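Hi P.,

Sorry for the delay on this. The queue was packed all week, but I finally got your sequence through. Input first:
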Amino acid sequence: MVTVRAQRGGIAALLLLATPACVATVRVSPAQYVPKNLPAKVLILDDAGLMYVMERPTIVGEHLTGFVPGTPATFSVAVSRVREATVTAKSPVRTALLVGTLTSLAGAVVLVGTRGGKAEPCKLIWDHEDIPGKGTDCDPSAP
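Then the structure:
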C-alpha cells in the first residue's frame, strides 16, 4: 500500500517536473517590453555575439541596464546593440495542456484503481475449468 508521504512526494516531484510546461521563452523588443512588464531576467545577445543574463532590467535613456546575476554589480548595454532579447513568460496554452493531461492521467488512475483486483473467471481452452486471472491461456469466447 502506498503511504500518504509517498503520494505527497510523488505529487511534489510531478509538479516540479511539470512547472516548465507552464512557461515559454519568447523574443521581445527590450525598449517596449521591459518598461511595461518588468521581467525578473532577460537574456541578451548583442551585435558582437556575446550573451548576457540581466536581472531586474530597466531602460535608462537609450540603455538596457540591470544586475549581474547573483551580485550587486550592474551593467548596461545600448539598446541599439541588442540583436536579440528573450524572456520567460507564462503560457496559458501550455498550462491548459498540462492541466488537461494531468486530469486525464488522474482519471485513468482512478479508473484502473476501481477496476483492479476484480479478475473475472475464465475457461481454459484445454480443460474448461474455471480459473480466475488466467489471461494468456483463456479462451476469449468462453463465458
